[in-house]
Design brief:
Blueprint (H helix, E strand, L loop, with lengths): L14 E4 L4 E4 L5 E2 L8 E2 L10 E3 L5 E7 L5 E16 L5 E8 L6 E6 L9 E3 L6 E5 L8 E7 L7 E12 L4
């Protein structure tokens, strides 16, 4: 049996940009997932599965990343649409970090989120609106690629039962 790469590499065709609305939706197959090609740890939807989420079965190292090229100067927010399954485990007292930066040399901004708030099994957007992860693409930047991720790599605890439906990068319009 031939050995395949253990990590799932993003399919750029699963990144959908709405130029007029300023929203970019990164579907599950558009994300890089550490250990994503190992069926013991993740269930990756097939291309034909439409809007099915990627499902975390079990990992101790959660690292899901992505990027969006060609953002126009302005302010954006980053969210992930996620859900804990009824049999989710390992999330008690664990903080998940969302991190983002503009350009390879940019400085990370981050938000910390607890997913175990009563183990609610409804789909939610993280971070909550009150703790938006805001990113600014400056006018004078030459590298306008947004690099982002969802991480829990510090606790060493095994966790599972997380479904990731998408990541969204949305332009913030000042009123």
């Amino acid at each position: 049996m031939a050995m395949t790469k253990p990590h799932y590499a993003a399919d750029k065709n699963s990144v959908i940009k709405d130029e007029q609305g300023g929203t970019c939706v990164i579907k599950p197959r558009g994300l890089n997932i550490v250990w994503g090609n190992d069926e013991r740890y993740w269930k990756i939807p097939k291309e034909t599965d439409g809007d099915k989420p990627v499902e975390l079965l079990q990992v101790s190292w959660l690292e899901v990343t992505g990027s969006v090229d060609g953002l126009r100067p302005g302010k954006y927010k980053l969210t992930f649409d996620v859900k804990l399954t009824a049999d989710a485990f390992g999330w008690k007292d664990i903080q998940v970090f969302l991190m983002a930066k503009v350009g390879k040399k940019g400085k990370y901004k981050w938000a910390r989120v607890k997913l175990d708030q009563g183990l609610n099994t409804d789909k939610v957007s993280i971070p909550a609106d009150t703790q938006k992860l805001k990113i600014e693409v400056p006018n004078d930047t030459t590298d306008n690629t947004l690099h982002f991720g969802l991480y829990e790599v510090w606790s060493g605890k095994w966790k599972g039962g997380l479904e990731i439906y998408n990541a969204k990068v949305t332009a913030i319009t000042e009123a």
